[in-house]
Design a protein that fits this description.
The complex is a heterodimer of chains A (304) and B (184). Chain A has 304 residues and is an alpha+beta fold. Chain A contains ten helices and eight strands. Chain A has helices at 5-20, 25-37, 39-57, 67-81, 83-116, 121-128, 140-145, 148-164, 167-176, 225-235, and strands spanning 186-188, 197-200, 216-217, 240-247, 255-263, 269-277, 282-288, 297-301. Chain A has a four-stranded antiparallel beta sheet with strand order 2-6-5-4. A three-stranded antiparallel beta sheet of chain A has the order 1-8-7. Chain A is elongated, with a radius of gyration of 39 Å. With 184 residues, chain B is an all-alpha fold. Helices cover 68% and strands 2% of the residues of chain B. Chain B is built from eight helices and one strand. The longest helix of chain B is centred in the N-terminal third of the chain and has 23 residues, at 29-51. Classes of the chains: A alpha+beta (304), B mainly alpha (184). Chains A and B meet through helix 1, helix 3, helix 4, helix 5 and strand 3 of A and strand 1, helix 2, helix 3, helix 5 and helix 6 of B. Strand 4 (240-247) of chain A pairs antiparallel with strand 1 (3-6) of chain B.
Chain lengths: 304, 184
């Protein structure tokens, strides 16, 4: 039987839908009955099944990325995406730019508010001034010339005192005060003479894929709990899951001991430690090690 | 002065998937690594199948993750993370492929090497037939048959409706059959 082209195309679509299971049960039953009686459509269905078999069977086998390549790809992607640099900027450099802008806006707003506010002071100050020194009103020329400096002198001193004591004036004065700009953190390389140690860390529980480590800063330490937590959670680069810094009597003067922990693909936990130089003004370690060859210390100057 | 960040082995907890996805959107390095290890093989596989060489696949994989790391903060969760990553990988792999179209050569295998090689010959013929298809038909077949994506997933990756995916698959099959039968 020769079917019209439109009918054949429609049947081909129905058979394709039947093949992919997109027909409702009633339509499916109807197509099944039709297939039993129509060799042309049966051939169409077999062709679809054969196509699927060919395509599935020809899928290229893809080997996994070698571990070294995978790590290198990740490191390059992390580096080139700039997310770590963006995070560092967001940490404090962003504030270094944003703070002056906010202060200028705040100061400007307050200044405009002060200028637009009606000033009740002149009348009040004139009232509390000494009436005996005020010129007599009969001579209009005398009121314009002679007494005016005396009245200004009387007004100026209390007016300044009164305004500097208002909270708005205080904030304005603080805003216009010279600001302390945070220095850019410098990368402090390891002391070249310090040997690095690779020691398996037995305290980590095997089987723990990822752990979240909470920084716990000693009471009275100049680093806040937030900055300690930021150190552990955000600043540690990806292979490093934990950072510890020790500065004090147990360490030689002018140095700090930095240790970083991570987990190798083999599942073994490792830690690496080294001494880095420091001085007493630098109290906060921000970042340790992306490369496993070296440990880097980023130091941030203590701020008031 | 003593400042010690005591890394507390006592206070630790494993992270559920939602936590690392949210953290990855905030560009937390540990979460980005988790994201990378979760999708590395999928991305590399798709890139390899679209580019045809391991070197190009590595380049496309790297480009995919660079873009993904940058764009993760803007990922709003409208689609699944998997299809979002697939979409980026697809664009990167196709971009690379367009640049290096000349380099893609399929290995010709002689047909008289025995029964064991029959499937290899068939595979080469199928891949040759796929190469002759239009790009949109080849992509939809690769996603369906090689990557094993469902219809709705393909729709998300390609940014088209589900009926459009079905129609495109239907036409791609027909075009593939013509191409394959013509070659054989």
């Amino acid at each position: 039987m020769i079917l019209p082209f439109n009918h054949r195309a429609r049947m081909a679509r129905r058979i394709a839908a039947y093949h992919t299971g997109d027909l409702n049960p009633a339509a499916c039953e109807a197509v099944s009955r039709h297939l039993a009686a129509c060799p042309h459509c049966s051939e169409e269905l077999r062709g679809l099944e054969e196509t699927d078999r060919l395509l599935r069977g020809a899928a290229p086998r893809v080997a996994s990325l070698p571990p070294d390549t995978s790590r290198a790809l990740f490191a390059r992607a992390l580096d080139e995406s700039g997310v770590l640099r963006r995070r560092t900027r967001g940490g404090w450099q962003l504030y270094a730019w944003a703070t002056p802008a906010v202060l200028v806006l705040l100061g400007g707003g307050l200044a405009v508010r002060e200028l637009c506010r009606p000033d009740p002071l002149p009348a009040k100050r004139l009232a509390v001034g000494t009436p005996a020194k005020r010129p007599a009103p009969p001579d209009p020329l005398a009121t314009r010339t002679k007494p005016e400096p005396v009245v200004r002198q009387e007004r100026r001193v209390p007016r300044l005192k009164a305004r500097t004591t208002t909270p708005a004036r205080k904030r304005l004065a603080q805003a216009s005060a010279p600001r302390r700009v945070l220095p850019r953190p410098e990368v402090v390389e390891l002391l070249p003479s310090t040997p690095l140690e690779w020691i398996p860390e037995p305290q980590m529980a095997p089987g723990v894929e990822r752990v979240e480590l909470m920084a716990d800063v000693e009471p009275g330490a100049p680093v806040s709990e937030e900055s300690g937590a930021r150190l552990a959670r955000r600043s540690a680069p990806s292979p490093v899951v934990s950072v510890e810094v020790t500065m004090g009597e147990s360490e030689p003067a002018g140095t700090a001991r930095v240790a970083a922990w991570w987990r190798e693909p083999s599942g073994e936990w490792f830690w690496k430690q080294a001494r880095v130089p420091r001085d007493d003004k630098q109290v906060e370690l921000v970042l340790v090690s992306l490369s496993r060859e070296r440990i880097w210390g980023y130091w941030k100057e203590e701020t008031e | 002065m003593e400042t010690a960040f005591c890394m507390p082995w006592l206070q630790r907890r494993t992270r559920p998937e939602e936590a690392w996805v949210a953290a990855a959107r905030l560009s937390e390095p540990w979460a980005l690594e988790r994201f990378y290890t979760s999708y590395r093989d999928l991305v590399y596989s798709l890139c390899f199948r679209l580019t045809g060489s391991s070197e190009d696949a590595e380049d496309a994989t790297q480009a995919t993750f660079i873009r993904a790391f940058r764009d993760l903060p803007r990922f709003r969760g409208d689609s699944s993370l998997k299809t979002w990553v697939y979409r980026i990988a697809l664009n990167e792999a196709l971009g690379l492929r367009r640049k290096q179209r000349d380099l893609l050569e399929l290995t010709e295998t002689s047909a008289d090497v025995g029964d064991a090689a029959a499937s290899v010959v068939e595979g080469v013929a199928v891949r040759s037939a796929l190469e002759r298809l239009s790009e949109e038909h080849r992509i939809v077949l690769v996603l369906q048959f090689w990557e094993g994506l469902s219809g709705p997933e393909i729709a998300e990756v390609l940014g088209i409706s589900l009926p459009a995916v079905k129609m495109r698959l239907h036409r791609a099959r027909a075009e593939f059959r013509k191409s394959y039968e013509g070659a054989v």
